[in-house]
Amino acid sequence: MALGxxxxxxxxxxxxxxxxxxxxxxxxxxxxxxxxxxRHKVFRGEIGYGIAGLYGVTLEDLKKLNxxxxxxxxxxxxxxxxxxxxxxxPRERLEDVYKVEPGDYLGKVAELHGxxxxxxxRFQRRPIKNKNRLRVGQKILVWQFGEILExxxxxxxxxxxxxxxxxxxxxHSSYYIxxxxxxxxxxxxxxxxxKVMVRYQKKYGxxxxxxxxxxxxxxxxxxxxxxxxxxxxxxxxxxxxxDQKRTKTFIRADKKNIDIRRTWGxxxxxxxxxxxxYIFIDYGLQKLLHQEALKRGVSESKxxxxxxxxxxxxxxxxxxxxxRNHKDxxxxxxxx
Length: 336
Description:
Blueprint: H1 2-23, E1 38-41, H2 48-54, H3 59-65, E2 81-84, E3 91-99, H4 106-112, H5 117-123, E4 139-148, E5 167-168, E6 175-177, E7 184-185, H6 187-204, E8 209-211, E9 233-237, H7 260-271, E10 276-280, H8 283-295, H9 300-306, E11 320-321, E12 329-334
Parallel strand pairs: 6-8, 10-11
Antiparallel strand pairs: 1-2, 3-4, 5-7, 9-12, 10-12
Helix pairs in contact: 2-9, 6-7, 7-8
């Protein structure tokens, strides 16, 4: 009898814990406790890379969590449920109808709703017959994104964290450290940065990268930053041509002065680690990097899960995303 009561008590405790987990924004074990687990219901026209980008993860991340359903990622069906560990908080999403107005064209309608043209076309119940000429009043199906879902909805995170057992990024020939007292990070972050820079130098050579701030020793608030408190963030300068290539500070980049081949190479090496939560890069520079990546043979489907571009800077999508004041440097955040 006592054993039976103990078993019942145990089951009740497990059930209570599961309910508490569903209510509380505490990380799930499958997500390494970074975030709660989310169930994504597949919409018409969605593909694996697009679903990954929606949550700021990779297709490989999705496959690990859904090995049976994504054994063949090309055979995703509407109505399927996939589990995901979102790095971008899930939002309410509804189907809506957009009526074409004078001056509209397909690309404009897509960007207005944070979609690519291909996504917009896949979402339609009936094919759009003339893609180059829309009729005023023509009805086009679109997605509308609403509020962040529970339990991801929370008050503004002031991120007043601490860095425990941090280590310092040591000097290396591939980069120049701006402020040596501000390059403390988690062991994982520092090791990943070092590996990326060694690979980058070996493949691309060129001038040293300007290494900005990670965190201060012990973490916590860092002047000049809202983040950089937990040892998982790093700022890096872009790579330049001409007289600016040997800079020891951050310089505003544009299509005239940026070494786009090497800058893409640097971003690519970070993305390939599979350990990146996001990379903040100015939207205009994203376009240049996206074009360079296509030129270098990276598949559109791969770029579709990585880049916010060309959905518009207002759409939170992908790993490489726009954030203001990132024309002179990129901000990389690693997973914990």
